[in-house]
Structure formats: structure tokens, C-alpha cells
UniProtKB/TrEMBL annotation:
Family matches, as InterPro entries: DctP_fam, TRAP_DctP, TRAP_DctP_sf
GO cellular component: outer membrane-bounded periplasmic space
Family membership noted in the UniProt record: Belongs to the bacterial solute-binding protein 7 family.
Xref: CDD domains: PBP2_TRAP_Siap_TeaA_like
Keyword set, alphabetical order: Signal, Transport
Compartment annotation: Cell envelope
Gene Ontology biological process terms, A to Z: transmembrane transport
Protein name, per record: TRAP dicarboxylate transporter, DctP subunit
One Pfam family from the record: DctP
KW Transferase (keyword) present: no
Length: 339
């Protein structure tokens, strides 16, 4: 079992559930007195660092505001799918949520961090997303009525899993029916690589793999583990083809209506949570390779350059430069290098 800071993730989650602090349990006395009762929705499973650390932030925020703020965390898509939650935040029906891919349907440049094979390592990721590229993206979201917090959560580098054969290079993807999130960046990437990308909701993914509706899928190791996808997949290729991060959103108008001191406490809590969650994912990546290997899964680490060459030849990078625009693409290449 994976632990964080010496504390079992499963134990932390069980304790929060028992106390009614995750999801719709009975509110503690302090929460019942709160002036600001806020809800935070996420697709992350309850024991994923992206949910656990936000729950810790909620407790810190309650303490910092003397109980004025009660932030309830709803993991595992309890409040609906990511697209539904994103729409709810835009309308003001939901207070906070985190997501990556679904926002691209509203603001394409919101997914520029997921350009295939852009970031070689985390040093480049955080330089970009905590720097000028992230600031540019957040400014675009502000134009459509969303406040985005400065620090993103780390969903991790995405890797390809398969049941029948390992992926050693781009040729192995030809004809592979692979599940992808329902957005164009993912679909066009795997199309260019010769695969057959198939959008399926994450909640339906395990069954789709088990019944061979799709032959493979791609996700960060933390989600492969928490969703137990390794039970129905026997090979994991550490392609790291996309770095995937979650922006944390709130409705800009509702956010501006809160007192400055309350906003400052929430911002501080969510910022600290994001930085801790990033560290958690780094530790988990190392631990999960060992634990998933013990479950009978074979790992490989393909050379990334042949994938990049196929994408470049297919016009993938030129196409997305045109879609995103010259200014954000220049900011991406400032950190990632020429694509």
C-alpha cells in the first residue's frame, strides 16, 4: 500500500469518510456555523493526492478563517463528470473544481501544456506553468469569467498501457484501439501516430479494457494505480507523451464578491496544497513502478524521438501552432524548445 509522509493514503481517506469530511457526510459543528459553505468537485479518486491534499487545504482554510469557510471536497466525480462540473463552475452553481482536458472545448489554449512530447522533465514543466506560459493561459480564462489559481495540480506524465503487446515505438501503435479523453489534442495526436483513438469516459474505462472494447489506454501512473487498470493491462510503456496538469477553477464573479481576507486564506491553502501534491506525485511515480511490477505488469521505456519525428512529419505541431496562435506557441517553445 502506498503511503504519504508515513500515513496510509487509505487510512487518511477512511478517516475522512468516517468523519463525514469527504462527500456528503454529516457536517461537523464548526462547518454548520460557517458563513461560506463552498463545494470543490474533482474526478480524482478519494485517495489520490489531488483529492487528499485539497482536503487538507480545506481544514487549513477553516482554521485560518476561524471557521468562516467550510470547503467540502467531493472526489471521484460525485458532482458529475468533469465537463458537467466545469459547466457548473462557469455558471456559478459549483464553487471550485479542477480539470485539465475538458476546458479545451471552451478555451483551446487551456490545453497547450498537453502538446505531445513538449516537456522533457518537470524542471521545464514548472518553469513554464508557474511562469509566462501559465500566466498567459490564466489570463485567457479570466476573459471568459473564470478565476484560475496560480499553482496547478500535477496529474503526471501520461503513459501507454496495453493488454496484448508492449509499445516499443510508433509502429506498435498502428491500428491500436486506444482510449483517450474526449478532446481534439489527444485524438489528433494518436491519429497522427496511426492509432485508433476512442473517447471513453474515465469511469467506464476499466470495463472497456476488461471487455476489449479498446486494446489500451494512456494515463499517469497514479491514476493507473488508483483505478486498478493494471489488473486488465499487462504492459506499460513509459512514453511520457503528455504532461497533464489540473488547473483549479472558480467563478470569477463569485470569487470577486468574497472579502479579500477570505480570498487570501483560500488562495494560500490551495497554493500550499498544490505544491505538496506535486511532491506526492513524484514520490508515487517511483513507488508505483515497483508495486505495479509486483502485480505482474511489464514496464518499458521507449525512445521518444521516433514519436516526435512521426508527429512532425504528419504536421501535428504545425497544425496545433495554427490552432493555438503564434504568441502562446512562442511561450511554449520558450520553455520546451523548438517543436
Amino acid at each position: 500500500m502506498v503511503t504519504q509522509g508515513g500515513i496510509s493514503r487509505r487510512g487518511v481517506t477512511a478517516g475522512l469518510l468516517a468523519a463525514g469530511l469527504i462527500g456528503g457526510g454529516a457536517l461537523p459543528v464548526r462547518a454548520q456555523r460557517a458563513k461560506y459553505r463552498l463545494r470543490y468537485g474533482t474526478a480524482f479518486p478519494a485517495d489520490h493526492p489531488g483529492a487528499v491534499r485539497i482536503r487538507e487545504a480545506a481544514e487549513a482554510i477553516a482554521t485560518a478563517t476561524n471557521g468562516e469557510v467550510n470547503l467540502q471536497v467531493y472526489p471521484n466525480s460525485q458532482l458529475g463528470g468533469e465537463a458537467d462540473m466545469f459547466s457548473q463552475v462557469r455558471s456559478g452553481a459549483l464553487d471550485f473544481m479542477s480539470t485539465s482536458g475538458v476546458n479545451q472545448t471552451v478555451l483551446p489554449v487551456g490545453g497547450i501544456n498537453a502538446v505531445a512530447f513538449a516537456f522533457d522533465d518537470y524542471a521545464k514543466v514548472w518553469a513554464a506553468m508557474d511562469g509566462d506560459l501559465g500566466a498567459y493561459v490564466r489570463a485567457q480564462f479570466a476573459k471568459i469569467g473564470l478565476h484560475v489559481f496560480d499553482k496547478m495540480l500535477d496529474n503526471g506524465y501520461r503513459n501507454i498501457t496495453t493488454a496484448a503487446k508492449p509499445i516499443a515505438g510508433p509502429d506498435d501503435l498502428k491500428g491500436l484501439k486506444i482510449r483517450v479523453p474526449g478532446n481534439q489534442l489527444w485524438v489528433t495526436m494518436f491519429d497522427a501516430l496511426g492509432a485508433a483513438p476512442t473517447p471513453i469516459n474515465f469511469g467506464e474505462l476499466y470495463a472497456a479494457l476488461q471487455t476489449h472494447i479498446v486494446d489500451g489506454q494512456e494515463n499517469p501512473l497514479a491514476l493507473i494505480s488508483s483505478a486498478k487498470l493494471y489488473e486488465v493491462q499487462k504492459h506499460i510503456a513509459l512514453t511520457g507523451h503528455i504532461w497533464d496538469g489540473h488547473h483549479v477553477f472558480t467563478n470569477a464573479r463569485r470569487w470577486a464578491a468574497m472579502p479579500e481576507a477570505i480570498r487570501a486564506s483560500i488562495t494560500k491553502g490551495l497554493t500550499e496544497a498544490a505544491l505538496k501534491e506535486r511532491e506526492d506525485i513524484l514520490r508515487l511515480n517511483e513507488e508505483l513502478i515497483a508495486s505495479i511490477t509486483k502485480a505482474g505488469v511489464t514496464f518499458s521505456k521507449p525512445d521518444k524521438q521516433p514519436f516526435r519525428e512521426v508527429l512532425k512529419k504528419a504536421g501535428f505541431y504545425a497544425d496545433w501552432k495554427g490552432r493555438f496562435g503564434a504568441e502562446p506557441w512562442a511561450l511554449l517553445e520558450k520553455y520546451a524548445g523548438p517543436l
